[in-house]
Amino acid sequence: MSWICLLIAGIFEVVWSTAMKLSNGFSVLLYSVITVIGMIISFGSLVLATKSLPLSLAYPIWTGIGAVGSVIVGVILFHDQLSGLTWVFGVLLVVSIIGIKMTSGN
């Protein structure tokens, strides 16, 4: 269950960061509300995950999911242009997240 909470936390980190961008400096009410709700769900799920997962495992995976998800959203939704080297480091981040999970023993 803690891994599911961690996955939810990471997904909602992407939700709130995307909504924050769309809120245009918190000037668009709907996206501002989605940002706050997304933060609450993300942080709340991270809290639940860290009840049984060590912080040294949960936090980097949470931030990694958020980082990779935000890159994907940025490219698809905001048409961000990334260099080839940036893509290489994004792949390394995904490999690192998987490696942390596989070697955690949890």
UniProtKB/TrEMBL annotation:
One Pfam match: Multi_Drug_Res
Membrane topology: Multi-pass membrane protein
Keyword Transmembrane carried by entry: yes
Keywords assigned: Cell membrane, Membrane, Transmembrane, Transmembrane helix, Transport
Main subcellular location of this protein, as a coarse class: membrane
Residue ranges that the Swiss-Prot or TrEMBL entry lists as coiled coil: none
Record-annotated membrane-spanning stretches: 27-50, 57-78, 84-103
Protein's cellular compartments: Cell membrane
Keyword Electron transport: no
Listed Gene3D superfamilies: 1.10.3730.20
Family note: Belongs to the drug/metabolite transporter (DMT) superfamily. Small multidrug resistance (SMR) (TC 2.A.7.1) family.
Protein name listed in UniProt: Multidrug efflux SMR transporter
Species the sequence originates in: Lactobacillus kitasatonis
